[in-house]
Amino acid sequence: TFMPSNTTTFMPYNTTTSIPEPEVCTGHVCLPSENGFFAEGCCDNTYCQCYNGNGYLKHCDGDGVFNEELQACDWDWHVPCCNTSMPTLPTPEEKCKATDCLVDGYFPEGLCD
């Protein structure tokens, strides 16, 4: 009796894996000897990691923004740059000048004369 042999044929296949190019920084230009993390913009969730003069764009997770003082992602209310649009209150002298003084003297708002 003849028994056919079990033969398995293997067909090689090629797969190509492409590694995406790293994003480049646009808001910060890295100097040749500069290493570290730098804000890409004010109150932005991206930041630039400089290494040997090359800049690599990084992103904070979720709603985080880059805090350059802490060198980390942070809440926007904690980043000074994000809070520059908050109104500033006038100094007592400015407030006093903006109102008509009925009497000269010292007041909680400042000196009126």
Fold and architecture overview:
By secondary structure, this protein is mainly beta. The protein contains 1 helix and 7 strands; from the N terminus they run E-E-E-E-E-H-E-E. The chain has one helix spanning 92-98; strands at 36-39, 46-51, 54-59, 65-67, 72-74, 105-107, 110-112. The strands form 3 sheets. The chain has a 3-stranded antiparallel β-sheet with strand order 1-2-3, with no helix packed on it. The longest helix has 7 residues, at 92-98. It is elongated and about 110 Å long. The protein starts with 35 loop residues before the first strand and ends with a strand.
Give unreliable regions as ranges: none
Number of strands: 7
Any idea what the radius of gyration is?
Answer: 31 Å
* Percent of residues in beta strands: 15-25%
For the report, how would you describe the main beta sheet? 3 strands, antiparallel
Q: What is the general shape?
A: elongated
Task: Describe how the helices and strands are arranged.
Layout: E1 36-39, E2 46-51, E3 54-59, E4 65-67, E5 72-74, H1 92-98, E6 105-107, E7 110-112
Antiparallel strand pairs: 1-2, 2-3, 4-5, 6-7
Describe the structure in brief.
The protein is mainly beta and 113 residues long. The chain has one helix at 92-98; strands spanning 36-39, 46-51, 54-59, 65-67, 72-74, 105-107, 110-112. The chain has 1 helix and 7 strands, in the order E-E-E-E-E-H-E-E.
Short descriptors:
single chain, 113 residues, mainly beta, three-stranded antiparallel sheet, two-stranded antiparallel sheet, 7 strands
